[in-house]
Amino acid sequence: MIGQSGYADVARAAVERVLDAEREAIGRAGRLVYDGLRAGGVVQAFGTGHSRAVALELVGRAGGLVPANQLGIRDLAYYGDASPQDILDPKIEREPGLALRIWELAEIGPNDVFVIISNSGGNATIVEMARLAAERGHPVIAITSRTHTAEAATRERADSDADADAGGGGGAGRVPGGRERLAGLADVVIDNGAPYGDAALPLPGGGAVCPVSNLTGVLIAQLLVADVVGRFLAAGQAPPVYRSANTPGGDAHNDALLSAYGGRVRLGDA
Predict the structure, then answer these.
(1) Minimum mean pLDDT among 59-68, 103-112, 169-178: which range?
(2) Is residue 244 predicted with pLDDT exceeding 90?
(3) Which residue in 69, 104, 73 sits closest to 90, CA to CA?
(4) Could you give the CA distance from residue 102 to residue 100 in angstroms, rounded to a whole number?
(5) Deepest of 42, 105, 187, 188, by most Cβ within 10 A of its Cβ?
(6) Percentage helix, strand, coil, to 5, in the chain?
(7) Could you tell me whether strands 199-202 and 208-211 are parallel, antiparallel, or unpaired per DSSP bridges?
(8) Do 86 and 77 contact (CB within 8 A), yes or no?
(9) Neighbours of 255 (CB within 10 A)
(10) Is 230 helix (H, G, I), strand (E, B) or coil?
(11) What is the DSSP letter of 177?
(12) Helix, strand, or coil here: 76?
C-alpha cells in the first residue's frame, strides 16, 4: 500500500536489516578509517546525484569527524576552471575521465581512506574514482546496494547474450558478463539494503516511489563515525570531532582541529 504506513514499514525493515546484517562490515570499515586517521590521513567521501547527501553527512558535521573531506563534481567549478553551466547536466556523472579531473583538484594524502557512495555502483565517475583510489593503494569503503548490483549484472549478461546471438559481439563498450561496479573495487562493501532502482513502493501502472538508499546511507555513515570514535576512546585518544558552531566555543574548537589539515579538508558547502 502506498502511503505513510507503507513506507514506514519499508523504512523500519531497512533500518533493522542494516543494524542486524551490516555491523561487521561497518566495523571493518571503522578499523580502516581509524588506522588512516591515526596515520594522518583524511576520509575522502564521494558520491554523485543524491548520494552526495550521504557523503555530506560525513563532512563538516557537528558531532562528526574533522578529518573528512567531500569530493564532488562541483569541485570542477569551485576549485577548477569549469563554469557552473558545465556541471549542471545531471548525466555528467556518466562521463568518462571526470573522476581524474576531480582527483587532481584535491590534496590526496598517502593515508587517506575513501568512502564512496552509490546505490547502483555503476556510473562511470563512481567506478573510476574507486579504481583510482584502489590503484594508488588507498582503502576503499563502498556504501551501495548489493541487490541493485546483482540484478544489474544479470540484466547486462542477458543483454550481452542477446547481442551475441544477433552477431553484435556483446555490444559497443560492454564487457561480457556485465560492467565493472563499485562493489568489485572496494575493500569493504556495506549494503544499504535498497532494492533495484532504489524506490521501494511499486506503482500500479509501473515504476515505484519512495527511495531507501539515503535513509540507510545516513544511518551507515553515523554508525561508521560511532565505530571510529569508539576506537579512539578505547585507545585513550581524543577523537577529532566537530562541536556545533552554534554552541559556546564551538568555532574555536573546530578551527584548532582544522588547522592541522590545511587545504586537505575543504568544507565547501558543508
Answers:
(1) 169-178
(2) yes
(3) 73
(4) 5
(5) 42
(6) 50, 10, 40
(7) antiparallel
(8) yes
(9) 10
(10) helix
(11) T
(12) helix
Q: Which residues have a Cβ under 8 Å from the Cβ of 67 and sit 6 or more positions away?
A: 37, 41, 42, 43, 240, 261, 264, 265
This prediction's pTM: 0.91
Contact status, residue 170 vs residue 164, Cβ threshold 8 Å: yes
- E strands, 85-150, are 113-117, 140-144
Percentage of the chain modeled with pLDDT above 70? 91
Q: Which of 40, 43, 17 is nearest to 225 (CA)?
A: 43
Model pLDDT, residue 88: 87
Average pLDDT, the chain: 91
Query: At which residue does the C-alpha cell 580502516 appear?
Result: 32
Number of residues in the chain: 270
Amino acid at 199: A
- DSSP letter string, 179-225: ---GGGG-SEEEE--PPTTSEEEE-TTS-EEEE-HHHHHHHHHHHHH
Rg (the chain; Cα; Å): 20
Cβ contact 209:190 at 8 Å: no
Using the predicted structure, report yes or no on whether residue 126 has a pLDDT greater than 70.
yes
d(CA 127, CA 118): 9
User: What residues form DSSP beta bridges with 209?
Assistant: 201
Alpha helices in 39-90 (DSSP H): 52-57, 75-78
- Alpha-carbon distance of 121 to 130, in angstroms, equals 10
Amino acid at 261: Y
